[in-house]
């Protein structure tokens, strides 16, 4: 659970570890996802080289509005870096992705990666890009706890008076 604009947002997260053996299962997760984190290891060029394939897979099996964040992981291993930060930034720019580097070991930017992805999804809800009536977008309106529906897209998307999101 995280809070964005004073609203409680529940994130449901699936990790396939990018393993080829999970590829067919991963495709079914894309269909019901509002966001994805595409992660590569900055110390292993081959993980960066496979990004195009994973990105094509994600885009082919997901909503065209899905938020995709590109993550360069293991930023704590600067001495072993094999992929420059600028390369990650350029790939993200070229493909319309949000980019950041993280370290799962030190927790640097890990929480921020999830929060920033959630904020991007929330903004798309606010902008009316995501139809919150369509659960195929990976968004469900939860129990209503607030007394104000400010900030929700017009029409309420099936939400009861009181707001709430995701």
Structure description:
- The chain has helices at residues 23-31, 45-49, 51-60, 85-95, 110-126; strands at 2-4, 7-9, 35-41, 67-73, 98-101.
- With 166 residues, it is α/β, with parallel strands linked by helices.
- It has a single domain (2-136), classed as Rossmann fold, CATH 3.40.50.
Features:
166 residues; Rossmann fold; three-stranded parallel beta sheet; two-stranded antiparallel ribbon; Rab_GTPases_membrane_traffic; Small_GTPase; Ras-related protein Rab-2A
Give the strand line-up of the largest sheet: 3-4-5
Q: CATH homologous superfamily - what is it?
A: P-loop containing nucleotide triphosphate hydrolases
Question: Per CATH, which architecture?
Answer: 3-Layer(aba) Sandwich
| Proportion of residues in helical segments | 25-40%
Overall tally of structural domains:
1
CATH uppermost class? Alpha Beta
Radius of gyration: 17 Å
Uncertain runs: 145-164
Task: Summarize it.
With 166 residues, the protein is an alpha/beta fold.
Topology:
Layout: E1 2-4, E2 7-9, H1 23-31, E3 35-41, H2 45-49, H3 51-60, E4 67-73, H4 85-95, E5 98-101, H5 110-126
Parallel strand pairs: 3-4, 4-5
Antiparallel strand pairs: 1-2
Organism: Capitella teleta (Polychaete worm)
Region (Disordered): 141-166
Protein name: Ras-related protein Rab-2A
């Amino acid at each position: 659970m995280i809070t964005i604009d004073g609203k409680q947002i529940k994130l449901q997260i699936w990790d396939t570890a990018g393993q080829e053996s999970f590829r067919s299962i991963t495709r079914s997760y894309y269909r019901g996802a509002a966001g994805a984190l595409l992660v590569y290891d900055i110390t292993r060029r081959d993980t960066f080289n496979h990004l195009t394939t994973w990105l094509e897979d994600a885009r082919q099996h997901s909503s065209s509005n899905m938020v995709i964040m590109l993550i360069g992981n293991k930023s704590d291993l600067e001495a072993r870096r094999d992929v420059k930060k600028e390369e990650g930034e350029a790939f993200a720019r070229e493909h319309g992705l949000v980019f950041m580097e993280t370290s799962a070991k030190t927790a640097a930017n890990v929480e921020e990666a999830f929060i920033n992805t959630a904020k991007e999804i929330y903004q798309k809800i606010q902008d009316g890009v995501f139809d919150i009536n369509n659960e195929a977008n990976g968004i469900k309106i939860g129990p209503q706890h607030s007394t104000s529906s400010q900030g929700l897209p017009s029409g309420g998307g099936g939400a009861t008076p009181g707001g709430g999101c995701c």
